[in-house]
């Protein structure tokens, strides 16, 4: 039989700092690798559509004619799959969690990538 | 990486009870009973294990064959057989605890079976 | 003549982490029979495998469960790698082992907290979860996610842990180990806890083997079954002892899980010492064609993934058989003959993870 086993621990935790964070008044714990939300650098996207194909939640929609990249934040599961497979590395994972919203909607970004013109007097280089 | 040896033996429905009885005598424990739908036929796998040696019995049935229950030998098999019935619509004869379709409550009966209409959205 | 009344237990109950329904047939406060019924979290994962490519299905497989998520992803990747005969580099195997053991630590601490809550000891619940926060912090620092890790992929792992980080994790584990000693001391030696747990929900050794109990439910009754002994991932190179008790009651299952905490810490320390340098993944091309049963050890028992592919990008079948599904018949057997007030303690002692069961 053992007595007062818990009393030591209970006394110690009463006298020390609280172990919880008063979120959202204080910011949440973050590390360098925390998966918060996906951001895009629109001047580098080449509209290849790889991120749309690889997304397991089907949250990304690419419209090549209108040059828009659209993402449904509430469907995204922040798995990092699109960031890993983008061939030009224009997608980044930010460490801040998505802010809560009250409406469903998609975020539309216009792609501003301009393909660089190849110099015409280089001769034999193919396009 | 170790690849453990896995023997799969396809047998007839009639031989099922005999083989399972033999495994029970030798001291194997039941690992799982799983059903796969390939085209129009269903493949049912009965898996057994003893001391990390894996054995597998496979029977192939179509939707209206009645499969005998092995819960006489393995009392815990009712979980898998009821689940198989509720999801795939396979009739199992002689279960020791028969939920009659109420084990897994889904809004469509037999969701993985043949009753799905074609043209559903993903 | 005693009258029988039927009381529904669940799906909403303060002690259950996930919804399960049990109909308890009572005679004067003694349970005569228990009839389980599941299906509250059925999400149809096995149908989803036909619509997602096999490389993307890792993310879906991981989200089957929130507590044991890493090992689901690991087992799925192992299955596909076996079908496609891919050789995973050693460093990736050791990293997977380290994350699996952290996953086991956090799952057992979660269970200890819920168990303390089930017999009313909330202070102990909060203390167990306070230690669990330190484990989750390490998971977040190394993979980016506290609950869903997302670091397994077919052919290896997605992220590496640097050597100095591994050294730091190893030092942290020493201090976590000391706190765990104090915590398990309370669980195992406190008089009022023992009074609630001894001789409650007894499962005999033969019953445990023939009804198909796995994991700590079986190991608490003397059946020494541990899938880590088959040597998947890097377990073949580590020194592992299976923990088993003989009594078969709730106290024995609690002892098994408390001792497994220390086994996990020991395994992580061994892996950190033995981890080799090298690449962390291999490139995988092609599609799986064939079938395989993969087995691994989750914190709750033996997990079986059956995968079948036919050469296209979409798998034909993925069947997940989780340990809680096969622990339900022993639960039904344990509940026969117990008192009504002991039902929450017994239901929690098999560690029900219903979202795995009803994928």
Outline the structure in words.
- The complex is a heterotrimer of chains A (127), B (122) and C (359).
- Chain A is of the alpha+beta class and 127 residues long.
- Helix content of chain A is 17%, strand content 16%.
- Chain A is elongated.
- Chain B has a single domain (6-93), classed as Beta Polymerase, domain 2.
- In chain B, the strands form 2 sheets. Chain B has a 4-stranded mixed β-sheet. Chain B has a two-stranded parallel ribbon with strand order 5-6.
- In chain B, strand 3 (41-50) and strand 4 form a beta hairpin.
- Chain C starts with a strand and ends with a helix.
- Chain C has 13 helices and 8 strands.
- Classes of the chains: A alpha+beta (127), B alpha/beta (122), C alpha+beta (359).
- Chains in contact: A-C, B-C.
- The A-C interface holds A 1-3, 5-6, 8-10, 13, 19, 29, 31-35, 54-56, 77-81, 84, 93 and C 52, 55-57, 59-60, 63, 123-124, 127, 130, 133, 137, 140-145, 148, 150, 158-159, 182-183, 185-186, 189-191.
Helix-strand makeup class of chain C: alpha+beta
What shape does the CA trace of chain B take?
Answer: globular
**Proper CATH architecture of chain C:** Orthogonal Bundle
What are the secondary-structure elements of chain C, in order, as H or E?
Answer: EEEHHHHHEEHHHHHEEEHHH
Q: What number of domains of chain B?
A: 1
Largest interface: B-C, 37 and 45 residues
CATH superfamily of chain B: NADH:ubiquinone oxidoreductase Nqo5 subunit
- State Rg of chain C: 21 Å
Q: What's the level 1 CATH class of chain C? A: Mainly Alpha
CATH architecture grouping of chain B: 2-Layer Sandwich
CATH class of chain B: Alpha Beta
- Overall 3D geometry of chain C? globular
Strand content of chain C: 5-15%
The CATH homologous superfamily of chain C is named Cytochrome-c3 Hydrogenase, chain B
Helicity range of the residues of chain C?
40-55%
Give the radius of gyration of chain B: 15 Å
User: What is the succession of H and E elements of chain B?
Assistant: EHEEEEHE
Main sheet properties of chain C? 3 strands, antiparallel
Number of continuous helical runs of chain C: 13
Mean pLDDT rating of chain B:
76
Q: Between the first and last Cα atoms of chain B, what is the distance in angstroms?
A: 36 Å
Short description:
With 127 residues, chain A is of the alpha+beta class.
Keywords:
heterotrimer; A: 127 residues; alpha+beta; Alpha-Beta Plaits; three-stranded antiparallel beta sheet; 3 helices; 16% strand; disordered C terminus; C: 359 residues; Cytochrome-c3 Hydrogenase, chain B; 8 strands; globular
